[in-house]
Design goal:
Keywords: Membrane, Transmembrane, Transmembrane helix. With 161 residues, the protein is mainly α. The chain contains 6 helices and no strands.
């Protein structure tokens, strides 16, 4: 499902990436796009804080209720996945040709939407969260494999430069 959604968005959404001839310009573009991927994390922090304030626990550092634990776990996992996402995107932006740089904002939007789907499905029940997690993790795994392929097969002479 992930490749079909990204391919459909790549073909049918009417925008192109700006001309980015240097590696530093591509990294700045990736950084700007990655700022949008933090939206679900910030939203999760806000909801986690509100749910912690509204919980009926008498001890603030005691046992957490299920509602509070769901949001805290979501934020923690999202931060870890965002770090992996950002470093993979930064490496990916250096290898992609100019005509494929449109994938950077598409993958960013897909990451944010998939984290929100994971959060919703995790709140419904733990057995439903596999769909949202796979929508986050499998594109991340594909980016990692492409980056390793690019580093070791396509350009091994530029590996450490």
């Amino acid at each position: 499902l992930c490749p079909c959604l990204i391919y459909g968005a790549y073909i049918f959404l009417p925008f192109d990436a700006p001309l980015l001839p240097t590696v530093s310009a591509r990294l700045v573009y990736t950084l700007r796009c990655a700022a949008f991927a933090t939206f679900p994390i910030v939203l999760g922090m806000i909801v986690s804080g509100i749910s912690r304030l509204c919980s009926s626990a008498l001890e603030p550092f005691g046992e957490l209720h299920r509602e509070v634990e769901i949001h805290r776990t979501y934020v923690s996992q999202s931060v870890h996945l965002f770090i992996l996402y950002f470093f993979n995107m930064a490496v990916l932006a250096t290898y992609l040709p100019q005509e494929l740089l449109k994938l950077i904002p598409l993958l960013t939007g897909f990451f944010a939407i998939s984290r929100l789907i994971f959060w919703m499905s995790y709140a419904i029940g733990r057995s439903f969260r596999a769909f949202g997690f796979s929508m986050t993790f499998l594109p991340l795994l594909a980016m990692l494999l492409w980056n390793l392929y690019g580093m070791f097969v396509l350009e091994p002479e530029n590996l450490l430069s």
